[in-house]
Write a structure and sequence with these properties.
single chain, 148 residues, alpha+beta, four-stranded antiparallel β-sheet, two-stranded antiparallel sheet, 3 helices
Length: 148
Amino acid sequence: LDGLDRTRLAMPYARTGSASFRPLGHREHANYPDGALRSSVLDLSRFLLMSMQLGEYDGTRILSTTTVEEMFRPQVPALEDIQGYAWYHDELGGRDVIGHDGWDPGATSFMFFDPSDGAGVLLVANGEWRDGAAERLLAKLFAESSWY
């Protein structure tokens, strides 16, 4: 958190009831969220776009195509046939997608794309979802993407 303007950071919240929330404050420890990584939604969307474009973003090659394809490829199929390097294969709303999600108290993110048509969805929240609500919203967002 050093050097960041904390007034520009979203406050993480914990659910304390059906419609009430408690601010958690900004914490930093070895696994929040995953090594204390902080990113803006804009930067995360750039990472998603670069990955969807097999290593290229805005006309600049950042990673080789081979590297990105290797990141998507299941690494130990005998143990887990969907898990690549950070990315994994899943199904959302009838689509075969590649993505990554994660959560910690007060932070949740979903980042998926459909390699067959190039639709991508990024959903982040400064709290936690209940009862599959995020997955239902992701499926709806993918359905909306088919209009374009």
